[in-house]
Design a protein that fits this description.
By secondary structure, the protein is of the alpha+beta class. The chain has a 3-stranded antiparallel sheet with strand order 1-3-2, with helices on one face. Helix content is 18%, strand content 27%.
């Protein structure tokens, strides 16, 4: 969910958890993607960590796919 870092920034990234244990919450954003099991992005579960802790990228969401996740984060944080 993070934008690219500049030299002055800390090398951090924010991750939205993906879960297969669905509860029917409005904060579970279901987006089918081929690189994850069926489930949903849980916008209540944001984590920020150093980029060096990322092991590998599993895939990408298109701009159309990321829009509902971004809106869910805004809703969760009342932005």
């Amino acid at each position: 969910m993070s934008i690219p870092c500049t030299d002055e920034d800390r090398l951090l990234m924010t991750v939205v958890s993906h879960t297969t244990a669905l509860r029917g919450s409005i904060f579970e954003i279901t987006i089918p993607v081929p690189f994850l099991k069926p489930g949903a992005f849980l916008v209540q579960s944001l984590s920020t960590l150093p980029v060096k802790q990322a092991i590998r990228r599993l895939g990408f969401l298109s701009p159309a796919q990321i829009m509902p996740v971004e809106q869910g984060i805004r809703d969760w944080l009342a932005l």
